From TrEMBL:
This is Rhodopsin domain-containing protein. It is a multi-pass membrane protein. The chain crosses the membrane at residues 30-48, 60-80, 100-118, 139-161, 216-234. The keyword Transmembrane applies. Residues 315-394 are annotated as: Disordered. Residues 315-328 have a biased composition (Low complexity). Belongs to the SAT4 family.
Protein backbone atom coordinates (compact mmCIF):
# COMPACT_ATOMS: atom_id res chain seq x y z
CA UNK A 1 0.00 0.00 0.00
CA UNK A 2 1.23 3.47 -0.83
CA UNK A 3 2.46 5.71 1.96
CA UNK A 4 0.25 8.81 1.97
CA UNK A 5 1.24 11.87 3.96
CA UNK A 6 -1.33 13.94 5.86
CA UNK A 7 -0.37 17.12 4.03
CA UNK A 8 2.01 18.02 1.26
CA UNK A 9 2.28 17.11 -2.41
CA UNK A 10 0.17 14.11 -3.46
CA UNK A 11 2.11 10.88 -3.62
CA UNK A 12 0.75 8.42 -6.16
CA UNK A 13 2.56 5.46 -7.67
CA UNK A 14 1.34 3.87 -10.89
CA UNK A 15 1.28 0.34 -9.48
CA UNK A 16 -1.13 1.41 -6.75
CA UNK A 17 -4.20 1.34 -8.98
CA UNK A 18 -6.64 1.42 -6.06
CA UNK A 19 -5.35 4.83 -4.98
CA UNK A 20 -7.80 6.41 -7.42
CA UNK A 21 -10.86 4.70 -5.94
CA UNK A 22 -13.69 6.99 -4.91
CA UNK A 23 -16.40 6.11 -2.40
CA UNK A 24 -18.01 9.53 -2.81
CA UNK A 25 -20.89 8.64 -5.18
CA UNK A 26 -21.98 5.73 -3.01
CA UNK A 27 -21.86 7.81 0.17
CA UNK A 28 -23.83 10.62 -1.50
CA UNK A 29 -26.56 8.20 -2.63
CA UNK A 30 -26.86 6.71 0.86
CA UNK A 31 -27.08 10.16 2.43
CA UNK A 32 -29.81 11.25 0.01
CA UNK A 33 -31.89 8.09 0.52
CA UNK A 34 -31.89 8.43 4.32
CA UNK A 35 -32.74 12.14 4.25
CA UNK A 36 -35.73 11.41 2.01
CA UNK A 37 -36.91 8.57 4.26
CA UNK A 38 -36.62 10.69 7.40
CA UNK A 39 -38.65 13.48 5.78
CA UNK A 40 -41.31 10.98 4.68
CA UNK A 41 -41.79 9.59 8.19
CA UNK A 42 -41.98 13.04 9.76
CA UNK A 43 -44.70 13.82 7.22
CA UNK A 44 -46.55 10.64 8.27
CA UNK A 45 -46.28 11.71 11.92
CA UNK A 46 -48.02 15.01 11.23
CA UNK A 47 -50.62 13.27 9.07
CA UNK A 48 -51.39 11.04 12.04
CA UNK A 49 -51.87 14.18 14.15
CA UNK A 50 -54.24 15.55 11.53
CA UNK A 51 -56.27 12.34 11.38
CA UNK A 52 -56.79 12.43 15.16
CA UNK A 53 -57.38 16.20 15.23
CA UNK A 54 -54.68 16.40 17.88
CA UNK A 55 -52.57 19.42 18.64
CA UNK A 56 -48.82 19.40 18.32
CA UNK A 57 -46.75 18.55 21.38
CA UNK A 58 -43.22 19.49 22.38
CA UNK A 59 -41.83 16.17 21.13
CA UNK A 60 -43.29 16.90 17.66
CA UNK A 61 -41.41 20.18 17.45
CA UNK A 62 -38.24 18.51 18.69
CA UNK A 63 -38.48 15.88 15.95
CA UNK A 64 -38.79 18.63 13.35
CA UNK A 65 -35.72 20.30 14.87
CA UNK A 66 -33.84 16.99 14.73
CA UNK A 67 -34.82 16.59 11.07
CA UNK A 68 -33.54 20.08 10.23
CA UNK A 69 -30.22 19.42 12.00
CA UNK A 70 -29.99 16.04 10.24
CA UNK A 71 -30.32 17.86 6.92
CA UNK A 72 -27.47 20.17 7.98
CA UNK A 73 -25.43 17.06 8.83
CA UNK A 74 -26.17 15.64 5.40
CA UNK A 75 -25.23 18.95 3.76
CA UNK A 76 -21.87 18.95 5.52
CA UNK A 77 -21.35 15.36 4.41
CA UNK A 78 -21.98 16.40 0.80
CA UNK A 79 -19.46 19.22 1.29
CA UNK A 80 -16.82 16.84 2.64
CA UNK A 81 -17.40 14.47 -0.28
CA UNK A 82 -16.84 17.39 -2.65
CA UNK A 83 -13.58 18.12 -0.82
CA UNK A 84 -12.07 14.67 -0.84
CA UNK A 85 -14.09 12.42 1.50
CA UNK A 86 -14.13 8.96 -0.03
CA UNK A 87 -10.80 9.43 -1.82
CA UNK A 88 -7.28 8.58 -0.69
CA UNK A 89 -5.51 11.56 0.85
CA UNK A 90 -2.62 11.15 -1.59
CA UNK A 91 -4.76 12.38 -4.49
CA UNK A 92 -6.44 15.26 -2.64
CA UNK A 93 -4.74 18.68 -3.02
CA UNK A 94 -3.55 20.33 0.22
CA UNK A 95 -5.91 23.32 -0.12
CA UNK A 96 -8.84 20.95 -0.55
CA UNK A 97 -7.75 18.99 2.50
CA UNK A 98 -7.84 22.18 4.57
CA UNK A 99 -11.46 22.75 3.58
CA UNK A 100 -12.25 19.11 4.30
CA UNK A 101 -10.93 19.28 7.87
CA UNK A 102 -12.84 22.52 8.54
CA UNK A 103 -16.05 20.82 7.40
CA UNK A 104 -15.23 17.74 9.47
CA UNK A 105 -14.96 19.86 12.63
CA UNK A 106 -18.41 21.37 12.03
CA UNK A 107 -19.81 17.95 11.04
CA UNK A 108 -18.85 16.41 14.38
CA UNK A 109 -20.64 19.15 16.34
CA UNK A 110 -23.81 19.12 14.20
CA UNK A 111 -24.09 15.33 14.20
CA UNK A 112 -24.14 15.05 18.01
CA UNK A 113 -26.71 17.87 18.14
CA UNK A 114 -29.07 15.90 15.85
CA UNK A 115 -28.65 12.77 17.96
CA UNK A 116 -29.31 14.71 21.17
CA UNK A 117 -32.56 16.19 19.80
CA UNK A 118 -33.80 12.76 18.73
CA UNK A 119 -33.15 11.26 22.17
CA UNK A 120 -34.80 14.18 23.98
CA UNK A 121 -37.82 13.93 21.68
CA UNK A 122 -38.33 10.26 22.57
CA UNK A 123 -37.93 11.01 26.28
CA UNK A 124 -40.46 13.83 26.02
CA UNK A 125 -42.94 11.43 24.40
CA UNK A 126 -42.39 9.01 27.28
CA UNK A 127 -43.10 11.78 29.81
CA UNK A 128 -46.43 12.44 28.12
CA UNK A 129 -47.48 8.79 27.93
CA UNK A 130 -46.29 7.29 31.22
CA UNK A 131 -47.61 9.02 34.38
CA UNK A 132 -45.45 7.22 36.93
CA UNK A 133 -43.45 9.66 39.05
CA UNK A 134 -40.43 7.34 39.28
CA UNK A 135 -40.52 6.88 35.53
CA UNK A 136 -40.48 10.64 35.05
CA UNK A 137 -37.47 10.94 37.36
CA UNK A 138 -35.69 8.28 35.31
CA UNK A 139 -36.50 10.12 32.06
CA UNK A 140 -35.18 13.39 33.44
CA UNK A 141 -32.00 11.66 34.63
CA UNK A 142 -31.31 10.11 31.22
CA UNK A 143 -32.15 13.42 29.56
CA UNK A 144 -29.57 15.11 31.78
CA UNK A 145 -26.96 12.51 30.80
CA UNK A 146 -27.75 13.07 27.11
CA UNK A 147 -27.37 16.86 27.43
CA UNK A 148 -24.12 16.47 29.40
CA UNK A 149 -22.81 14.07 26.74
CA UNK A 150 -23.66 16.60 24.01
CA UNK A 151 -21.87 19.45 25.81
CA UNK A 152 -18.79 17.30 26.42
CA UNK A 153 -18.55 16.09 22.81
CA UNK A 154 -18.99 19.57 21.34
CA UNK A 155 -16.30 20.91 23.68
CA UNK A 156 -13.93 18.10 22.72
CA UNK A 157 -14.57 18.70 19.01
CA UNK A 158 -13.99 22.46 19.20
CA UNK A 159 -10.93 22.29 21.47
CA UNK A 160 -9.38 19.10 20.11
CA UNK A 161 -6.28 21.05 19.11
CA UNK A 162 -4.29 23.87 20.68
CA UNK A 163 -4.49 26.30 19.00
CA UNK A 164 -7.92 25.54 17.50
CA UNK A 165 -6.89 26.23 13.84
CA UNK A 166 -4.42 23.35 14.08
CA UNK A 167 -7.43 21.03 13.67
CA UNK A 168 -7.49 21.93 9.96
CA UNK A 169 -3.89 23.06 9.53
CA UNK A 170 -1.47 20.52 11.05
CA UNK A 171 1.50 22.62 9.99
CA UNK A 172 0.83 25.05 12.84
CA UNK A 173 2.77 24.73 16.10
CA UNK A 174 0.80 23.07 18.88
CA UNK A 175 -0.71 19.72 19.74
CA UNK A 176 -3.97 17.74 19.33
CA UNK A 177 -5.68 15.05 21.37
CA UNK A 178 -6.00 11.45 20.20
CA UNK A 179 -8.96 11.81 17.83
CA UNK A 180 -9.62 8.08 17.56
CA UNK A 181 -9.94 7.86 21.34
CA UNK A 182 -12.33 10.82 21.31
CA UNK A 183 -14.48 9.15 18.64
CA UNK A 184 -14.66 6.00 20.76
CA UNK A 185 -15.51 8.11 23.81
CA UNK A 186 -18.33 9.64 21.78
CA UNK A 187 -19.78 6.32 20.60
CA UNK A 188 -19.87 4.35 23.86
CA UNK A 189 -22.13 6.75 25.88
CA UNK A 190 -24.24 7.20 22.75
CA UNK A 191 -24.92 3.46 22.49
CA UNK A 192 -25.46 3.16 26.26
CA UNK A 193 -28.14 5.88 26.31
CA UNK A 194 -29.82 4.29 23.26
CA UNK A 195 -30.12 1.02 25.17
CA UNK A 196 -31.45 2.78 28.28
CA UNK A 197 -34.08 4.73 26.32
CA UNK A 198 -35.28 1.61 24.48
CA UNK A 199 -35.50 -0.39 27.73
CA UNK A 200 -37.42 2.26 29.69
CA UNK A 201 -40.99 1.37 28.56
CA UNK A 202 -40.54 -2.39 29.07
CA UNK A 203 -41.24 -2.50 32.82
CA UNK A 204 -44.10 -0.01 32.52
CA UNK A 205 -45.88 -2.01 29.83
CA UNK A 206 -45.18 -5.36 31.48
CA UNK A 207 -46.96 -4.33 34.69
CA UNK A 208 -50.14 -3.27 32.93
CA UNK A 209 -53.22 -5.32 33.82
CA UNK A 210 -53.78 -6.59 30.28
CA UNK A 211 -53.31 -9.92 28.56
CA UNK A 212 -49.99 -11.11 27.15
CA UNK A 213 -50.90 -10.40 23.53
CA UNK A 214 -51.64 -6.76 24.32
CA UNK A 215 -48.40 -6.41 26.27
CA UNK A 216 -46.43 -7.81 23.33
CA UNK A 217 -48.25 -5.50 20.94
CA UNK A 218 -47.39 -2.43 23.01
CA UNK A 219 -43.79 -3.52 23.53
CA UNK A 220 -43.42 -4.05 19.80
CA UNK A 221 -44.71 -0.53 19.18
CA UNK A 222 -42.15 1.02 21.53
CA UNK A 223 -39.27 -1.19 20.36
CA UNK A 224 -39.80 -0.52 16.66
CA UNK A 225 -37.03 2.04 16.81
CA UNK A 226 -34.43 -0.48 17.97
CA UNK A 227 -32.82 -0.45 14.53
CA UNK A 228 -31.26 2.93 15.40
CA UNK A 229 -29.26 1.06 18.03
CA UNK A 230 -27.85 -1.23 15.34
CA UNK A 231 -26.98 1.85 13.27
CA UNK A 232 -25.06 3.26 16.26
CA UNK A 233 -23.21 0.01 16.80
CA UNK A 234 -22.30 -0.35 13.13
CA UNK A 235 -21.08 3.25 13.02
CA UNK A 236 -18.85 2.43 15.98
CA UNK A 237 -17.29 -0.47 14.05
CA UNK A 238 -16.55 1.82 11.09
CA UNK A 239 -14.75 4.27 13.38
CA UNK A 240 -12.39 1.51 14.47
CA UNK A 241 -11.17 1.24 10.87
CA UNK A 242 -10.08 4.87 10.78
CA UNK A 243 -6.42 5.57 10.07
CA UNK A 244 -5.16 9.12 10.50
CA UNK A 245 -2.69 8.68 7.65
CA UNK A 246 -5.59 8.29 5.20
CA UNK A 247 -8.46 10.09 6.92
CA UNK A 248 -10.46 11.00 3.80
CA UNK A 249 -10.64 7.35 2.74
CA UNK A 250 -10.97 5.47 6.04
CA UNK A 251 -13.45 7.92 7.61
CA UNK A 252 -15.83 8.06 4.62
CA UNK A 253 -18.13 5.26 5.73
CA UNK A 254 -18.17 6.45 9.33
CA UNK A 255 -19.24 9.97 8.32
CA UNK A 256 -22.05 8.67 6.13
CA UNK A 257 -23.22 6.39 8.92
CA UNK A 258 -23.43 9.44 11.18
CA UNK A 259 -26.10 10.72 8.78
CA UNK A 260 -27.72 7.27 8.68
CA UNK A 261 -27.86 7.12 12.48
CA UNK A 262 -29.39 10.60 12.77
CA UNK A 263 -32.00 9.88 10.09
CA UNK A 264 -32.84 6.48 11.62
CA UNK A 265 -33.26 8.20 14.97
CA UNK A 266 -35.80 10.61 13.47
CA UNK A 267 -37.67 7.68 11.89
CA UNK A 268 -37.61 5.72 15.16
CA UNK A 269 -39.04 8.68 17.06
CA UNK A 270 -41.95 8.85 14.60
CA UNK A 271 -42.89 5.16 14.46
CA UNK A 272 -44.84 4.91 17.77
CA UNK A 273 -47.10 7.80 16.69
CA UNK A 274 -48.22 6.32 13.34
CA UNK A 275 -51.03 4.05 14.55
CA UNK A 276 -53.82 6.34 13.22
CA UNK A 277 -52.23 6.26 9.75
CA UNK A 278 -51.92 2.47 9.81
CA UNK A 279 -55.54 2.10 10.93
CA UNK A 280 -56.77 4.37 8.16
CA UNK A 281 -54.79 2.54 5.48
CA UNK A 282 -55.83 -0.90 6.74
CA UNK A 283 -59.51 0.07 6.97
CA UNK A 284 -59.54 1.44 3.42
CA UNK A 285 -57.68 -1.60 2.13
CA UNK A 286 -60.09 -3.92 3.94
CA UNK A 287 -63.12 -2.10 2.50
CA UNK A 288 -61.69 -2.35 -1.01
CA UNK A 289 -61.00 -6.08 -0.67
CA UNK A 290 -64.48 -6.69 0.76
CA UNK A 291 -66.08 -4.90 -2.15
CA UNK A 292 -64.14 -6.96 -4.64
CA UNK A 293 -65.03 -10.25 -2.92
CA UNK A 294 -68.73 -9.42 -2.83
CA UNK A 295 -68.72 -8.25 -6.42
CA UNK A 296 -70.66 -5.11 -5.52
CA UNK A 297 -70.01 -1.46 -5.97
CA UNK A 298 -70.05 0.40 -2.68
CA UNK A 299 -71.69 3.81 -2.83
CA UNK A 300 -71.60 4.64 0.87
CA UNK A 301 -70.78 3.23 4.28
CA UNK A 302 -72.94 0.23 5.05
CA UNK A 303 -74.80 0.31 1.72
CA UNK A 304 -74.57 -2.19 -1.13
CA UNK A 305 -76.59 -3.28 -4.12
CA UNK A 306 -78.21 -6.07 -2.07
CA UNK A 307 -80.28 -3.57 -0.09
CA UNK A 308 -78.75 -4.68 3.21
CA UNK A 309 -77.46 -2.37 5.88
CA UNK A 310 -75.14 -3.63 8.57
CA UNK A 311 -74.66 -2.20 12.01
CA UNK A 312 -71.60 -3.11 13.96
CA UNK A 313 -70.25 -1.92 17.26
CA UNK A 314 -66.64 -2.36 18.00
CA UNK A 315 -63.95 -0.95 20.22
CA UNK A 316 -60.35 -0.26 19.46
CA UNK A 317 -57.32 -0.70 21.66
CA UNK A 318 -56.40 2.67 23.10
CA UNK A 319 -53.76 3.94 25.46
CA UNK A 320 -55.07 5.64 28.54
CA UNK A 321 -58.13 3.73 29.66
CA UNK A 322 -60.64 5.24 27.20
CA UNK A 323 -62.41 3.60 24.33
CA UNK A 324 -62.32 5.42 21.04
CA UNK A 325 -65.62 5.82 19.28
CA UNK A 326 -66.77 6.82 15.86
CA UNK A 327 -70.12 7.21 14.21
CA UNK A 328 -70.29 7.11 10.42
CA UNK A 329 -73.25 8.92 8.99
CA UNK A 330 -75.58 6.54 7.25
CA UNK A 331 -73.35 3.58 7.96
CA UNK A 332 -74.47 2.66 11.44
CA UNK A 333 -70.92 2.01 12.56
CA UNK A 334 -70.70 2.60 16.29
CA UNK A 335 -68.30 1.78 19.08
CA UNK A 336 -68.72 1.61 22.78
CA UNK A 337 -69.16 -0.69 25.75
CA UNK A 338 -71.71 -3.41 25.90
CA UNK A 339 -74.60 -3.21 28.36
CA UNK A 340 -77.51 -5.49 29.17
CA UNK A 341 -79.50 -3.97 26.33
CA UNK A 342 -76.83 -4.27 23.65
CA UNK A 343 -74.41 -1.55 22.65
CA UNK A 344 -74.44 1.89 24.14
CA UNK A 345 -72.84 4.75 22.24
CA UNK A 346 -69.87 6.49 23.90
CA UNK A 347 -68.71 9.96 23.06
CA UNK A 348 -65.11 10.35 21.94
CA UNK A 349 -62.91 11.42 24.82
CA UNK A 350 -59.66 13.32 24.37
CA UNK A 351 -57.16 14.42 26.91
CA UNK A 352 -57.03 18.00 28.01
CA UNK A 353 -54.08 18.98 25.86
CA UNK A 354 -55.69 17.79 22.65
CA UNK A 355 -53.47 14.79 21.94
CA UNK A 356 -54.47 11.63 20.15
CA UNK A 357 -56.38 9.02 22.09
CA UNK A 358 -53.64 6.63 21.05
CA UNK A 359 -51.17 8.59 23.13
CA UNK A 360 -53.03 9.14 26.38
CA UNK A 361 -51.14 8.22 29.57
CA UNK A 362 -50.86 4.52 30.34
CA UNK A 363 -52.17 3.50 33.73
CA UNK A 364 -51.04 0.45 35.66
CA UNK A 365 -54.55 -0.73 36.45
CA UNK A 366 -57.38 -2.63 34.91
CA UNK A 367 -58.59 0.48 33.11
CA UNK A 368 -55.29 1.20 31.44
CA UNK A 369 -56.16 -0.38 28.13
CA UNK A 370 -59.64 -1.35 27.05
CA UNK A 371 -60.40 -3.63 24.16
CA UNK A 372 -63.99 -4.16 23.08
CA UNK A 373 -64.24 -6.78 20.39
CA UNK A 374 -67.98 -7.63 20.66
CA UNK A 375 -70.10 -6.77 17.70
CA UNK A 376 -73.59 -7.28 16.40
CA UNK A 377 -74.86 -7.41 12.87
CA UNK A 378 -78.44 -6.78 11.86
CA UNK A 379 -79.96 -6.65 8.42
CA UNK A 380 -83.22 -5.08 7.32
CA UNK A 381 -85.09 -5.92 4.16
CA UNK A 382 -86.14 -3.01 1.98
CA UNK A 383 -89.67 -3.26 0.53
CA UNK A 384 -89.49 -2.90 -3.23
CA UNK A 385 -92.14 -1.25 -5.41
CA UNK A 386 -93.15 -4.68 -6.83
CA UNK A 387 -93.80 -6.11 -3.35
CA UNK A 388 -95.87 -3.07 -2.40
CA UNK A 389 -98.06 -3.41 -5.53
CA UNK A 390 -98.56 -7.13 -4.88
CA UNK A 391 -99.68 -6.38 -1.34
CA UNK A 392 -102.30 -3.86 -2.56
CA UNK A 393 -103.66 -6.34 -5.11
CA UNK A 394 -104.26 -8.84 -2.34
Amino acid sequence: MVAIPIFGAPVVRARDLDVYEDQGPHQSATTTALLVLATFFVGLRFWARYLKSAGFALDDYMVVGALVVTFVTGGLNYGMIANGLGKHMGVVPPDTLTEFFKLLLGFECVYVTAVMLVKLSVLQMYLRIFPSRNFKYGSWAIGGVVIAWWIAIVAVCVFQCTPIPKAWNPMLEGHCIDLKASFVGNAIPNIATDIAILAMPVSQVWHLQVNLAQKISLLFMFLLGSFVLFASIYRFTTIMRWQIEDTTWTLAEACTWCVVESACGVISACLPTLRPVMMKISSQWGSLNSSRRNGTKTTGLGKSGLGLRSKSGFGTETIGGTTSSSTAAGGGIRSGTRSKHGFSKMESQADTDGHSLDELPLQKNAGGIQVQSDFSVSAEHRITDEERDAHHRR
